[in-house]
Amino acid sequence: MAMPWRGVIAEYRDRLPVSDATPVVTLLEGGTPLVRSEALSEETGCDVYLKYEGTNPTGSFKDRGMTVAVSRAREEGAKAVVCASTGNTSASAAAYAARAGLTCAVLVPRGGVALGKLAQTLVAGARVLEVEGGFDGALVVTRELAEAHPVTLVNSVNPDRLEGQKSLAFEVCDVLGRAPDCHLVPVGNAGNITSHWMGYREYHDDEVVEGIPALFGFQAEGAAPIVRGRPVEHPETVASAIRIGNPASWERAVAAAGESGGDILAVSDRDILAAYGRVAAEGLFAEPASAASVAGLLFLSTSGRIRRGATVVCVLTGHGLKDPQVAIDRAARPRAVPADAAAVAAELGL
Ligand code: F0G
Residue 319 Cα, ligand 1 centroid: separation in angstroms? Predict the structure, then answer.
């Protein structure tokens, strides 16, 4: 009988900052599907895999880091956790705090959080405060709050978050039986690309796998501070998850891309939405920010920057249901028909 997946901490305990004394707070996160994309493989001449993080308990990769951050917070006797968020970190923090019996407060940009994420955060019982301005200002306030008060910050500036998130790289290698040649990921606050590099390097240094991938990060054109080389004061993109103008892990992301032989590049909203449609057409419903990795793959492929035959992983970071509005706005309205088989058949052209 197949062993059931036991969650990130139990599966990778030796590689995480936990001990027998750590009270493990888990919702059995991780173990997400690595789905081969026939269509993208054919189009690019690469062997393309989509790492679908939408199947995590709260529907995004954040759960990988949150299980470690909240377990460690409990170990240290914390009573409350706080974060700033474009929505997914808050949904994850709220769920893991609820599980752990901790209070959770989140600061989100006013009007900047997709509906599904707000619903998740509220239903788990977190205090949600909407702040004026964007994510970057909210993160500054949250950091100040955590310095002055006895609350644990669970943004990706918390090292335990990055430790947990590196498990994605382990899983990719474990499933492929090797490291991919290229690993593509959307970039917002830049924690994820930093953590994936940590994970790949660790497996390589410990000789679990021989190779190490080139890491490519993709920002949205209207929210591309790293690509432009300066903070963006009013970041704008349809991909609200990565609407960030001054990423906390900026330098580490640049180092990860540089050391690995990759790059950090920008993709337009138009290309993000086209890629969003492409992924959905393969049966995987991912949120707009997630599609930045696939938009990036198509860009690298058409500009000849990716070798044919390369094994490529694109991370789909969050579930499409988190942002239903974008899906509805792009789709044709359902048509009203009478409850009559002949009328339905005529409508369908059968
Ligand atoms: N994709 C999704 C779906 C995200 O929610 C985020 C970040 C990213 C990509 C970028 O990851 O920040 O590590 O570079 N969301 C954060 C949040 C900012 O608050 O939920 P990153």
Answer: 12
52 phi and psi, to 5 degrees? Answer: -90, 95
Strands, E assignment, the chain: 34-36, 47-52, 80-84, 103-109, 127-131, 152-153, 182-186, 214-220, 263-267, 311-316
Phi, psi of 241 (to 5 degrees): -60, -30
Among 113, 242, 315, name the best residue to mutate to test ligand 1's pocket (greatest count of ligand atoms within 8 A of Cβ).
242
The answer to whether 320 and 280 are in contact (CB under 8 A) is: yes
pLDDT digits (tens, 9 = 90+) for 133-158: 999 999 999 999 999 999 999 999 99
Parallel/antiparallel/unpaired status of strands 47-52 and 34-36: antiparallel
Which pLDDT band holds residue 2 (cuts at 50, 70, 90)? confident
